[in-house]
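Structure tokens please, single chain.
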Amino acid sequence: MSEIQCQVANIEPLTDTVYKVELTPSSPMSFKAGQYILVHMGENDKRPFSIANAAWDNDRIELHIGADEGNAYATEVLERMRNDGTITLSGGHGEAFLKPNGKPMILIAGGTGFSYTWSILQEHLHSDDTTPVTLYWGGRHADDLYLADELSALAEKHDTFTFVPVVEFAHDDWSGRTGWVHHAVMADHADFANVQVYVAGRFEMAKVVREDFSTRGLSKDDLFGDAFAFI
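Here you go.
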């Protein structure tokens, strides 16, 4: 795909380690909800990040970049953006984009994998499709679920949308679900034969989702995630 030059419009923290990046492309970039871009750091150094905005909102590119001190892969990208004010990228890449087929959708996100599901969710809610969609978002701590309030408000507004936050290490004031996010999904669904599942997070989580959900009837044709191109 052709390269596109982007101005760095804004970088702001969402948590202590996650940053929201707003890019303005030189021209609107065509992509599908659930695809990713490659940030071109060098001729042979292209780094993938999920696009967080919906495909209809394509005069900008939003990224959610997790960049703690031990993650040079991401921190170097943020430093380049801050220092240069511009960045070169290409997209949209990936085959795990939104493919509605009338089946209820389950979106599963671990950490900043949320950006993948956020694009899909916004695209779906913006359409006339009334297919039910449930987003399960798992984080180590409640503060890691940085758009939880906005998602809860969307669930109040849209009868067909359900938001289920899941916290692995919960404090006493947490009243929601706890543990691993894919366990919460399995607790709610005994049969996956008639649903679509979109998943983003650590490769280990995606692998377990594929294994465990398939034993409950999930077809490989109804399971989507960029991780499955590698595992």
